[in-house]
Structure formats: C-alpha cells, structure tokens
Amino acid sequence: MRQLICAGNWKMHKTANEAAAFVDAFLPLVRAVPDRVEIVLCPPFTALAAVSPKLSAGRVKLGAQDVHWENSGAFTGAVSAPMLREHRVQYVIVGHSERREYFGDTDLTVRLKTAAALAGGLTPIVAVGETLELRDAGNTLAHVTLQTRAALEGLSEADVARVVLAYEPIWAIGTGRSCDPAEANAVMAAMRACVPGLRETPILYGGSVNSENIADYTAQPEIDGGLVGGASLDPKSFAGLCANAASVSR
What we know:
38% of the residues lie in helices and 15% in strands. The protein is of the alpha/beta class. It has one domain: TIM Barrel. An eight-stranded parallel beta sheet has the order 7-6-5-4-3-2-1-8. Strand 3 (60-64), helix 3 (81-86) and strand 4 form a beta-alpha-beta unit. The chain starts with a strand and ends in a 5-residue tail after the last helix. 44% of the residues are buried.
C-alpha cells in the first residue's frame, strides 16, 4: 500500500519564532493521527534551524521548499542539498508553480533539482499542474504528463520510485476553487502511467485542499494525500486535515 503523506507548504510565512511556536502546539495534536500518514512540515529556510530540533522524535518530518542542483558554488540566494541535510531535512518541494512563475524554474531546472535532491539523500516532492487556460483548452493531461516526464527524465526506475509527485492545478492554488476529486484522480492516473516506476509512488493533491475536503481526495484510489498551503498554517486546522486524510479506508 502506498504511503499517505500530508505535507504543509508554508511558503513565505512564519518567522523562526512563529514556526517554533507552531510546532510546540502542533505535535500534541497529531499524536493520535495514524502512523500510515506521513506528516511533513516545509517552513521557510530561515526557520529550519528552529524547527529541526523539535522534530527529532521523528513523528513529523522536516521538508524544505526548494533546492539548488549544485552542492555549492556562486549561486547567490540558493540552498543546496547538503545544507538542507545538515538541518535533518528529509523532503524538499521541487517545481512548485510559484517557483516556475516567479523565479524562472523550467522543466530543465526542475529535472536537475529532482536529481540533485535524490543524490543528496532527500525525497523530492515534484509538483506539476496546469493553468486555467490549458484546462479550458482540454490540454490538462498532455501538459501534466509532459511536466512529469521532463522532471524524471534520465532517472533509473529505482530512483523514480523514490520520488513523490504532487498534482497542483494552478487555477486552484489559493483561490478557494478545488479540483473535483474524480477529475484529480484521473489526472493522477495518467501521471502514474506515463513513466515506469511510478506504480508505488505517492501522488499528492494540492490546490485549496483543507480539513473539510481532504477525505474526498484520499478516498480516490490514485490520491495519496495532500500538498497543503494555507490550511497548513494553523496547528489545529492542519492536525485535523492529517487526521481526516486517514479517515477513509483504502
């Protein structure tokens, strides 16, 4: 059975002190969440040092929001896999639509970052998704499978199996509009079939997912949890989401 994962992407929210306070409030709330749900927090880089020691018990894993494809070098503002590992980071988001739109990430750099994360002992959460224009034109499957193939190009089947994917329709991110669960499931089925090695790979849904609708997604056979934005910023809300993700039988 594939791993269920609920990953909170805090984006550019929370100072180090605020992040530490969140974890102090959050950990007691998720003690009763079944172990079959892997819980991941992805704070800003500046909060990793404050959060990491608090997660040392291992129930909640630490993630980061981006990684560079080189281990070191003249790349002002970038953070490498060895730097993340030093803070006991285990997951890293790669290719989020905001990185693609605002910071110039391309299919090539997403592929390089995915490979660098794997080589550095991190589990990449590779995000793909379509704009509203592509969806309305009927090009969702073609675009999303193209992004998936591009991100995993050149990887062995064994390495592909170590990746986590996230389907995040861009038109649903932060808009309050969520993709119909059955529609999202169909997209994820196409993603899973487009590259060998993805049979047991968790695929997460992201895009206005919250504690009220997460179970509708995890009830679908191809959906293995959520990459969560705004609903992960409140300890009680995110703890409830993690619990609800596991409330359906699979």
